[in-house]
What we know:
The first copy, chain A, is mostly helical. Chain A contains 5 helices and 2 strands; from the N terminus they run H-E-E-H-H-H-H.
Amino acid sequence: xxxxxxxxxxxxxxxxxxxxxxxxxxxxxxxxxxxxxxxxxxxxxxxxxxxxxxxxxxxxxxxxxxxxxxxxxxxxxxxxxxxxxxxxxxxxxxxxxxxxxxxxxxxxxxxxxxxxxxxxxxxxxx
Amino acid sequence: xxxxxxxxxxxxxxxxxxxxxxxxxxxxxxxxxxxxxxxxxxxxxxxxxxxxxxxxxxxxxxxxxxxxxxxxxxxxxxxxxxxxxxxxxxxxxxxxxxxxxxxxxxxxxxxxxxxxxxxxxxxxxx
DNA sequence: CTTGACCCTGTACCGGGGTACAGGGTTCAT
DNA sequence: ATGAACCCTGTACCCCGGTACAGGGTCAAG
Lengths: 126, 126
């Protein structure tokens, strides 16, 4: 963890403004450390910093907050699912193209470039 | 397609500077249109604009270019594969957490928040 | 008591892929 | 001949998640 990043989180409202020592240094409590760990884990689950801020504000609510958290999680899962499908389509298309690179070296004309250049998908809107 | 985007591609070196009419308007040839379509398709395959610029510069080379293109495609496929695996891990972890939201409404304490807060992965470096 | 390693604030910058002005010129239909 | 709807250049800005200064204060070891 970079100190600049901690201050950035403070600016973004993810971390509360910490108490200061007499000379003005930030004195982080163990609660702040826990919050930072929470942030990092939530990031690994694909939440954006804005969403994490929302989660943190919900964290002390009751059953209603619980519902909100659950629906945020559901939205994230759906979004992850969409992105996975997209990336798989890219990988498959590109893998298929690369598989066509099989002519002997002397008579090549790069099938990948030709395929990207020619293979217009249906309904393309330029 | 936005006109600003075309100029942006021109600045980035993806499109050659087009000829101008007497009054200075850009006169795009059909070759330029084909290039733009190429760019859009390559983007859909996950290439960055820098990579696409490289592909375009390679597009008129011979067998050696073909090898370069093939290795770029291979690198992209590997990268896509890595990203897919990451997103799947996120989706699975978050889906599992959401599955634990099952207590009756009155006695909830948001298991998702608790799990994110407590479930430290091994080898975590803050 | 100096030197080096930290901390502070404030502001600017990175990369990626564009988008949005401002302040002008042109073209075309009415 | 005039108004809308385009085009031009140049520059600045957007989001996102930080990172990097500059110009100063503080703290602990030697």
